[in-house]
Amino acid sequence: MAIALTVGVLVAGGVFMMLRRGMVRVVIGFMFLNHGVNLIILAAGGADRRGEALGGSPDPATTADPLPQAFVLTAIVISFAVTIYLLVLAVTGDADDDTDLELTGREMETPTFIEDAGGSTALPADELGPRAVRRTGSHSSRRRRPPGGRP
Amino acid sequence: MSADLLPLFVVVPLLAAGALVLLGDPRGLSRTTLLGVLGVDVVASLWLVTDLRDGPTVLAHAVGQWPLGVSIPFAADMLTALMLAMTGSLTLVCAWFGVVSQQARKRFFAPLVLVLTAGFNGALLTADLFNLFVFVETMLLPSYGLIILAHRGRGRLMQVTSARIYVTVNLLASTVLVAGVALVYGVAGTVNLAELSGRATEDSAVAIAVAVVLFALSVKAAVVPVHGWLARTYPFMSPTVTALFSGLHTKVAIYAIYRIYAVVFDGAEEFLWVGLVLFSVTMVVGVLGAVGEQDARSVLAFHMVSQIGYILLGVALFGAAGLTAGIFYLLHHTVVKASLFLSIGAVEIGYGRYPLGHVTGLLRREPLTAVVFFTAAMSLVGLPPFSGFVAKLSLVLAAFGEGRTAVAAVAVVVSLFTLLSMLKVWGKMFLGEPEDSAREVLGTVGARKPRIPAPLVAPALVLVLVTLTFGVGGELLLGVAAVAADGLVDPRAYVEAVIRT
Amino acid sequence: MSLLVILALAVLLVPAAGVLGRRAGRNAGWPLAVGLLALAGGLVAVWDDRADPGGVVQQVPWMPTLGISLGLRLDGLGLLFGLLVLVIGAVVVAWSSRYLGSGGHASFYTLMTFFAAAMLALVLADDLVVLFVAWELTTLCSFLLIARSGPEGRDPAIRTFLVTAAGGLCLLTAVAVMWAATGTTRLSAVLADDVWDASPGLAAVVAVLVALAAFTKSAQFPFHAWLPDAMVAITPVSAYLHAAAMVKAGIYLMLRFTEALHAVPVWNVLLVSVGLLTALMGAVLALQRHDLKELLAYSTVSQLGFLTATIGIGTEYAAVGAAVHVAAHALFKSALFMAVGVIDHQAGTRDIRALSGLARTMPATAGIMVLAAASMAGLPPLLGFVSKEAMFKAMAHSPAPDAAVWLVGTVAVLAAACTFAYSVRMLTVLPGRAPADAPREAAAAFLAPVAVVALAGPALGLAGSVAEPLLGAASTAVAGSGAEPDLGLWHGWSPELFMSLAVFGLGGALVLARRPVDRVLGRRSFPVTGVAVVEAFRRGSIALGEQVGRPTRSDVPRRHLMPPVVSLVALAAVGLLTVEVPGLYGDPSTVTDWVLLVLVLIGVALALRARSRVGLLTIAGDVGFAVALWFYALGATDVALTQLLVEVLTVVVIVLLLNRLPSTFHRTGEVRGWVAAAVAVLVGAGAAAATWLLTDRRALSPAGRYFLEEGEEQTGGTNVVNTILVDFRALDTLGELTVLGVAGIAIVVAIESRGLLPKRPSPITEPDASPIRSPRDNMVVLRVTARTLGPVIVALSLFFLLRGHNAPGGGFISALIGAAGIALVYLTAPDDRVSRMRLPYTRFIGAGVVVAVVVGLLGLLEGSFLRPLHVDVLGIHVTTALVFDVGVYLAVVGVIVAAISRLGVDEKEPLPLRHAGSASSVLHSGPPATTTTSKPHSRETAPVGTVHDEQDRTRPPLPERPDPFRGAGPAAGEGH
């Protein structure tokens, strides 16, 4: 029964943190969630047998089921990998790791029209960032913006 | 093709990716390796398709040759082979677009795509639930890298925010998936699909545990109400990556749902109503959302949600006709959606990325791109003579055949809104006055010279030719899809093959 | 020459038209016209030497899986419409070779021939699906032909496409219903099936659906708006598609289904009422129009209304009336359209008020217009009169009750009177003085095709018997043998004659009172126009779409995580209600469990209320350690060790980030907090219930028993968990290793793509003199321990690696220990610059993956991928699983070094875009192109685009852009 309650506490804490603001808190929320799920995996092997699966021929009546332990090892390592990546995402934002950004999807726009000087091969879409731009005529002042940016 | 070569589908791309990273991702070599390995992958999967059509219907192999339930089984029936072939060629075409659009010049693009392919092939071939989780993760990590991939110092904020949403939602889905697999092991004592076959109908505990797994997969497949993340993340990656993801991630989830429902639930009748309701709502919400979006790729991304509703309808109409229609729709959608993304990508590269209405009147200037996008759009809507028509027709016929008239009516009405959204994109972008940057360019650099070089549109054109061939010669794919559907309706062949390894 | 060959030739004509259009320009019209006529001849040839009188049938399998075959059948009706499509098509194409300007017309001719082929397929189709395919192809052609007529053609084209596609979908549903009911898609079989009488409900449904499809295609009320809207297309398109052929597809469909549906009351009432309403409304609206082309458009709507009403009656006379009027209408309407085209081409305008005196300036065109208009008005001795008579006859002799017959008769007479009025109104352009710049008469080649069609009217009117075999075949195909037409001009004093006389009387009155009629009609326009309805539907659905997409159109992860979590709660609830589980298998919990539960509870509670990042970090570490204790208590030592080390390294990585983030968390809204809390508690309860109900209820699983009993014997290792990881389920570990490696690469990609936030100034504000000011001096203890601990850690790591197979250890644990050592070396570095890692971490990752995969491939030697090989080296029993572990080791170390190396230290050169927060290190120049939202907490995120990249400006812009930050060498970017 204690395992089930621990799982409940960890999952509840994890989900609560996950729904808060700020990327680091979301990451720690996911860490708690992963702890909870790892405990579920181990519980699935039968928590009444708790002997260590070591030595020549461990007695199946008292030794813990080794298969879920292998699953948990894999799950821990995978969630560790994703957690580090999420942490990196926390610090590659614009100002801080705040997640309540009100973006209009227009930030992905190509700010200025890119004219590749010589070559005919155009540059990829996200390449069209701050490259030096050769202005072609008085151009951007006439840009038509639909009113009220936020749809 | 002998069964123990199946793991090579995973190993060869993985080895190539590892070697490339080991050599520091040299530019020239990485591009040729990428295209080479993907080419080999496509050829091998086509060989598998022809092999399965004539010879035994299922190839199975226990990795490591340990006894049943201990080792991880790889199994390939006609559905697997078809998905391998279609998605392999899709990845090849997207990689080709990446090379042409200088996308492949970004560091680590080639290894990431190769690991993505390896993960996808593994997820299709494995018949072990935990191994499915591992391969899904093997697919996800390279995608996390591909989302944020940009030339040095040129990543956009939107890429980060969409990466955050993508990673968190998929991490949640994976966590729920592994929890589901654990519960399945807790109740049934095995995670081997063959050993689980039919048990969900006997034991309600197994049914609930597998339901958790199916729920996690439907989050990955972006079924309503968990569809928002897909519509908000796919438009904000680079075009190549969006086209790649459209053919891979949701498809692996859909494949798993097809496989698990066919094997573990043995196509149980009593749960189908849940699918019918959910997927009808998905179709409607997806297409309405698509009509309301402001820029081309958002429309197409939101549209995927609706099309996924159509594909999964095949499962909800469990039966030979319904599954054949669903599988055909799955393969057709892979081709058409990628073609749409690639042609819109070509326009974005040529004219920059703006909301609809800024760059207009391209028909005169870019006739090839206009025709390619229009053809793919009409195929998506389901107009003849394209594969979309055969897909929609077979789905509607299947729905009527099983008396599900309400669902069939929804499918028909939704295709009208599909047409509306496609005309909104095509109309605004290609018809009307040559506007703004298009006219402004007209003024300066030779009015008639198309801004989008032909090689950039070639990948989309190839995919359009594929959809045309499967439209006119629908039987080519329908026959094979029917064989795959039989493999799902009566999974005994699949189960016995895995047990015999 | 079989039907299939004719259809194939028609399809081949399309690419030929493209080639001719590009090379021969506008003159491509003539050869194409000859081609179309040849096909018409072929059709007649097939019809003449047909074996059975019913028609020629041909089956080719198309999609056997769905039971669909390419069935073609030529019967009387098919022949009439086929000839109509091909002949009128040839005439229009020939005529357009003079109407079009110079230059290439490839797309026009391609689409026109493609349309002709599609219509031919439609009328020859003997399979419901082939019928539907051809139907949709005509819709597609009409959209493209309207859309290509310039920018102003966009909205009409889209509206037309929407309306006709909606009709197409009704037809698709009808096809599916019929297929489900009769089990076959063969048209002739379906029509002859007895299901129509058996289940009247089904027949009614199919009747409505087919009627709706026909109404949208033939522009009947309420879908009539798209036809005048489509007049924006060039005149040949209007003449061919929107007068003679495409709009007749609906009529053909109704005629084809009359055989099955003529007795269905819904069908009769619907067709007659809508037909007559459209006829009257079309005629009245035509009277209002000043533009000749628009007038003809509404006239077409009206004439199609007449046809629909006649077909609705469903008797033999109706079939005859419809067949004759179809031919008559096609002839005079295409002639009128082409004549108007000639006038527009010569005079430059189509406005009745601007044109006058054409009789004198363009006599030939005037003559043609008179003939065609007279036929439209239904004056004897023209074919128009004969067909109108036949229709009136059908209306007069319909089996309906007398009141209905009188009502139908009067409305028909009224509409015919208006038709008479607007036909005469068209002719008002002829008399009067010629204007100053009088239009010249068109060239002979331009007028010849029009003349052919116009003269057919009087010719067939006088010598009706010539057309009798063709029209007879069509009407008998529809209504059985009784429907024989007799096309003489005089049939005695019959009711239809009186109706015609009434028409001439009323029409003449309308003509004489032209001015008051114009004034009355001028003002009153319909409150709502069809175009507005379609626009409203389009705008309404777009607005609805925005509402539907609104909840998910946000970049806040919470908004995307909430739906899955809430659905999970729902799933848990359903699970709780429906699951029945056996009793507990053993007693799962011991005393220590409750202690650990309390430990975890305290940790999580503290974490929820933590405000400062460092605080939360430490508490999270403690919870991780408590969970490690749990794993140890459950007998999973390997797992506990891994959990411990993973927790340590996660804390190290977070610490590296702290100095780039603010010290406290952002405030989350009050309401959001409570909602999140409620949902979290529910999910937690669900998880706890699932764990309690779905675990510990069975004996040890067979797989578990196998590992325990035969693990050591099969693999030679006594650490069973490790043997599973590297022997039995090595594929999982390979996947896991790849995941870790790719995570390292993803981190490098993310950092290179966007660069990290700049480090914030350290909050410690100590005066210079104070001893704890400089970090270097305070780390003496750490540096000494690091120097002594370093080699110990490396030895420990190798020790765990080697013993992994037999005791707690293995690839992951040893690698994590090694990584902890590296973290220690990093932490003790005096400052950032010095401590740059010398290890090429991406190569480690690559090496790890390659080693693991190669070891797996070695397994192939013994039969299967990842099959461990056992070999005795110098008496020590060594297995390839160990080498596999080395691969794991390399990958894990690679990831950690990547994270520490790229996160811990500052960039060699700051990336160009880092302008947020710290003083803007990069020039802002050039107009800020985009503004973003003004929400307080959102940063001024002017997109990176406005930032100029100094290096780039100095460099000459090369098409093949070498990356300025990466030197020549491939691996220059990392490690050194």
Q: Encode the helix/strand succession of chain A as letters.
A: HHH
- First-to-last CA distance of chain A: 51 Å
| Overall geometry of chain A | elongated
Task: Look at the helices and sheets of chain A and give the structural class.
Answer: mainly alpha
Q: Kindly provide the radius of gyration of chain C, computed on alpha-carbon positions and rounded to a whole number of angstroms.
A: 42 Å
SS summary, helix count of chain A = 3
Distance between the termini of chain C: 79 Å
Number of strands of chain C: 4
Describe the structure.
The complex is a heterotrimer of chains A (151), B (501) and C (976). Chain A has a domain at 2-51 and 63-90. Chain A is built from three helices and no strands. Chain A has helices spanning 2-18, 23-44, 66-90. Chain B has one domain. Chain B has 21 helices and two strands. A two-stranded antiparallel ribbon of chain B has the order 1-2. Among the domains of chain C are: 262-544, no CATH class; 558-699, Four Helix Bundle (Hemerythrin (Met), subunit A); 717-761 and 774-908, no CATH class. Chains B and C meet through helix 1, strand 1, helix 4, helix 5 and helix 6 of B and strand 1, helix 5, helix 6, helix 23 and helix 24 of C.
Short description, anyone?
The complex is a heterotrimer of chains A (151), B (501) and C (976). Chain B contains 21 helices and two strands.
What labels describe this entry?
heterotrimer; A: 151 residues; mainly alpha; 3 helices; B: 501 residues; two-stranded antiparallel ribbon; 2 strands
Question: SSE layout and pairings?
Answer:
The complex is a heterotrimer of chains A (151), B (501) and C (976).
Chain A: H1 2-18, H2 23-44, H3 66-90
Helix pairs in contact in A: 1-2, 2-3
Chain B: H1 8-22, H2 27-54, E1 59-63, E2 72-76, H3 78-100, H4 109-125, H5 129-148, H6 157-188, H7 193-196, H8 199-202, H9 204-220, H10 228-233, H11 239-263, H12 272-292, H13 296-316, H14 320-351, H15 367-381, H16 387-401, H17 405-430, H18 436-444, H19 454-472, H20 474-489, H21 492-500
Antiparallel strand pairs in B: 1-2
Helix pairs in contact in B: 1-2, 1-4, 2-3, 2-4, 3-4, 3-11, 3-14, 3-19, 3-20, 4-5, 5-6, 5-11, 6-9, 9-11, 11-13, 11-14, 12-13, 12-17, 13-14, 13-17, 14-15, 14-16, 14-19, 14-20, 15-17, 15-19, 16-17, 16-19, 19-20
Chain C: H1 3-24, H2 29-48, E1 56-63, E2 68-74, H3 76-99, H4 106-124, H5 128-147, H6 154-182, H7 187-192, H8 195-198, H9 200-217, H10 226-229, H11 235-261, H12 265-288, H13 292-313, H14 316-347, H15 358-361, H16 363-377, H17 383-396, H18 402-426, H19 444-462, H20 468-479, H21 495-512, H22 514-523, H23 530-549, H24 557-578, H25 591-609, H26 613-633, H27 637-658, H28 670-694, H29 702-715, H30 720-728, H31 730-754, H32 775-778, H33 780-803, H34 811-827, H35 841-861, E3 870-873, E4 876-879, H36 880-904, H37 950-954
Antiparallel strand pairs in C: 1-2, 3-4
